[in-house]
């Protein structure tokens, strides 16, 4: 379950930058949002791989 917490924490950490970018037009915040989303993509792929490995090991 700690992986879920990592995803959740990452998303919550980006909340301020999303607001700054979309509401205030802060371009630097947009760059941070893109970087955070890339981290989310990487983390998601790692989790997918773990789930697949555990699923295959159960067979």
Summarize this structure briefly.
The chain has helices at residues 2-24, 27-57.
What's the topology here?
Elements: H1 2-24, H2 27-57
Helix pairs in contact: 1-2
Write structural notes for this entry.
The protein has helices at 2-24, 27-57. With 59 residues, it is an all-alpha fold. The longest helix is centred in the last third of the chain and has 31 residues, at 27-57. The chain is elongated.
Give me some keywords for this one:
single chain; 59 residues; mainly alpha; elongated
How many helices in DSSP terms? Answer: 2
Helix content: over 70%
Q: Which whole number gives the mean pLDDT? A: 96
**What composes the largest sheet?**
none
The count of β-strands is: 0
Order of helices and strands: HH
Contiguous uncertain segments of 5+ residues: none
Q: Report the portion of residues in β strands.
A: under 5%
* Shape category: elongated
Structural class: mainly alpha
Distance between the termini: 22 Å
Radius of gyration: 15 Å
């Amino acid at each position: 379950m700690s992986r879920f917490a990592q995803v959740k924490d990452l998303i919550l950490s980006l909340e301020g930058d999303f607001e700054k970018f979309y509401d205030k037009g802060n371009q630097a915040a947009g760059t941070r949002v893109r970087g955070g989303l890339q981290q989310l993509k990487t983390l998601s792929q790692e989790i997918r791989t773990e789930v697949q490995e555990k699923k295959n090991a159960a067979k």
